[in-house]
Write a structure and sequence with these properties.
Layout: H1 2-23, E1 42-46, H2 48-51, H3 60-64, H4 67-75, E2 95-97, E3 102-104, E4 107-113, E5 119-125, H5 131-135, E6 146-148, H6 167-170, H7 187-192, E7 198-202, H8 205-213, H9 226-240, E8 246-250, H10 259-262, E9 269-271, H11 273-284, E10 295-297, E11 300-302, E12 311-313, E13 319-320, H12 326-331, E14 347-348, H13 350-373, E15 377-379, H14 381-387, E16 392-394, E17 397-399, H15 418-436
Parallel strand pairs: 1-6, 1-7, 7-8, 8-15
Antiparallel strand pairs: 2-3, 4-5, 9-10, 11-12, 13-14, 16-17
């Protein structure tokens, strides 16, 4: 009798388990598909964003979180292959001042006393500038899928001098370190020789940004003429898109959406009534048009078009660059003292901004046309960056273009953090999926690093 009862209990329990299994809701399977796009050999061509330049330097951790590397990781979920990068060993790496042609250290964030005795976060230089890590030749390990080169312009793509070991010729140390044959190969030939099945193409930023970041100082940098830019792009895309190869072309963001140009407001000069009165007395005799009040004031700049004084206050649409020394504004009278107007190197005037934006719009119009002609996805980074003003939210985390706090841009105010790169990678994925009908999954932005506070 006891055995019979046990058998009944076992049968009832088994039936109960079967009932639960039968009632279990069916989970919809997630389908990722390349829909005929072949990502097995992905090659990325571009400049600082593609390379993973971050915090004013090229170093391993930044390269590992470049948008191209993140994009390659997502491609692997739909048949993509390995993505080899010319990694810089160590955690420091180095940056490069393209105006002075000298190496510079990576930036980091510190917390301490400012010149006026208050405590705040401020950027500082890393303890080490690892020039050896940059200059060590690794071209023997080629080919590299990531052909991003910090500072590269469109005109550098097919220029053999760009890969020269002689900085007098290359004016850039970042390609010669991994060029297949320095002084012979080019970024474009090293890319196309790999016979990529898919590519991304994002050039043009440095063709205009270098001039903008120099305060439109023509002795330091000029904007690449439109015809020259167009010829370089046509030459590159003719090779890259040969045989109906699929790929994506990205456009160039507006400078006003990057903290390097927007972090310091034109009216950053905050004065007491006593300070304002003192300055007004100093300016009354020679530049009466300059006037100060208690509270926020437009800073004073040097402007050769303003005669006879060659000094005036900034207009509300003009920009102060992040390269200006903060302590010099707050404690040394830059931008207020009669003898210390902000120089051309640190500001962009209305006319200069209009010229720069016109160049960006012309570049973007041409890039869009060429993308369409070659049946390539067009990635609208220009519009993406506009959204950063109000913020982009991913899984509850909001990213903005606010300097330090926005988590999208790194400490140099130009290049993105890991999170920023992930957002950019997702914009590429969006454009690629829409163009080719693929189902490449989006990257989880929150898996990548933002601003690292001490």
């Amino acid at each position: 009798m006891k055995n019979l009862s046990e058998k009944i209990i076992i049968r009832v329990f088994a039936a109960f388990i079967l009932l639960i299994a039968a009632c279990k809701p069916e989970l919809k399977e997630l389908n990722f598909d390349n829909k005929g796009a072949d990502f097995s050999k992905y090659v990325a061509l571009g400049s600082s964003y593609t390379a993973g330049y971050q915090n004013n330097a090229l170093f391993d951790a930044g390269q590992q979180q470049s948008f191209a590397a993140i994009l390659a990781n997502q491609f692997k979920l739909v048949g993509g292959g390995d993505f080899k990068q010319p990694l810089v060993p160590g955690s420091y790496g180095a940056g490069f001042n393209f105006y002075l042609k000298t190496y510079i250290p990576q930036l980091n964030l510190n917390y301490g006393l400012t010149c006026d005795g208050t405590s705040d976060f401020r950027t500082g230089n890393a303890a080490v500038t690892d020039i050896t890590a940059i200059e060590n030749y690794i071209g023997g390990e080629a080919p590299f899928n990531n052909m991003g080169v910090p500072g590269m312009k469109a005109t550098d793509l097919d220029n053999a001098d760009f890969g020269s070991l002689d900085l007098q010729l290359s004016k850039n140390p970042f390609y010669s370190r991994f060029a297949t044959i320095p002084e012979n190969s080019t970024v474009l030939t090293d890319a196309t020789r790999q016979l990529p099945t898919f590519f991304t193409f994002w050039v043009g930023m440095h063709d205009v940004y270098d001039c903008a970041m120099a305060g439109y100082n023509q002795t330091l940098a000029t904007i690449t003429p439109l015809a020259t830019f167009q010829n370089a792009v046509v030459n590159a895309l003719t090779s890259l898109a040969a045989g109906n190869r699929k790929g994506a072309v990205a456009n160039i963001p507006d400078i006003v959406d990057l903290p390097y140009f927007s972090a310091i407001p034109y009216d950053a000069l905050v004065l007491t009534q006593e300070q304002a009165d003192t300055l007004n007395l100093l300016y009354a005799s020679n530049v009466p048009a300059i006037h100060f009040v208690a509270g926020r004031n437009a800073m004073v700049i040097s402007d050769t078009l303003t005669l006879p004084s060659m000094k005036r206050q900034l207009n509300s649409d003009e920009l102060v660059l992040l390269s200006v020394p903060f302590d010099s504004i707050y404690c040394a009278g830059w931008g207020s003292n009669t003898q210390k107007p902000l120089g051309n190197r640190f500001v962009l005037t209305t006319n200069e901004i209009n010229t720069i934006r016109q160049a960006i719009n012309s570049y973007n119009s041409f890039l869009k046309t060429k993308a369409a002609e070659n049946n390539l996805a067009y990635v609208d980074i220009y519009s993406l960056f506009k959204k950063l003003n109000s913020g982009i939210t991913f899984n509850g985390v909001k990213l903005t273009n606010e300097f330090l706090k926005g988590n999208f841009f790194s400490l140099d105010g130009i290049t993105p953090t890991g999170k920023g790169s992930a957002v950019i990678a997702n914009e590429f994925i969006k454009a690629i999926n829409e163009k080719y009908g693929t189902q490449v999954p989006y990257a989880d932005v929150n898996n990548y690093t933002g601003t690292i506070f001490p």
